[in-house]
Amino acid sequence: MRHVHEGAGLDTLREMVAMDMGSTFLPGLYVDGVAKNDSNVRVLSLSDRQIYRTVGLASSQSSERQGEYLRLAALVRGLIAQQFPKYPLVST
User: Fold this and answer.
1) What share of residues in the chain are helix, strand, coil (percent, to 5)?
2) Is this prediction's pTM over 0.70?
3) Cα gap 43→21, rounded to integer Å
4) Is-contact 24 41, C-beta < 8 A?
5) What span, in angstroms and rounded, lies between the C-alpha atoms of 52 and 24?
6) How many whole angstroms separate alpha carbon 10 and alpha carbon 15?
């Protein structure tokens, strides 16, 4: 069973861990919503460092919709902060 596997989806990765095929890092939202309820998976937290993901919104500076994109980015930041306060946002 220990062939080379590639897991693109989070559920695939979780299932591979449940089948004792290795370990993986999963996003906190997925762990809170799905993985922690799987009795075949043991969830561990890293205590000495934060792991994070960078998500960006890009557009052309000459775009006529630049203002709309900036408002969209602000809306998304606000919704994330409101809905998921456990996961802090870092703006650059």
Assistant:
1) 40, 0, 60
2) no
3) 15
4) no
5) 15
6) 9
